[in-house]
Amino acid sequence: EFDIDNNGDGDDVIYGGNGNDTIYG
Question: Where is the composition biased (Acidic residues) (predicted)?
Fold first, then answer.
């Protein structure tokens, strides 16, 4: 699963490892 969350602060980090990768930005 790939979820994207861009809050506009310019910091995009991928957290995942169990097949669930989410971008918190």
Answer: 1-12
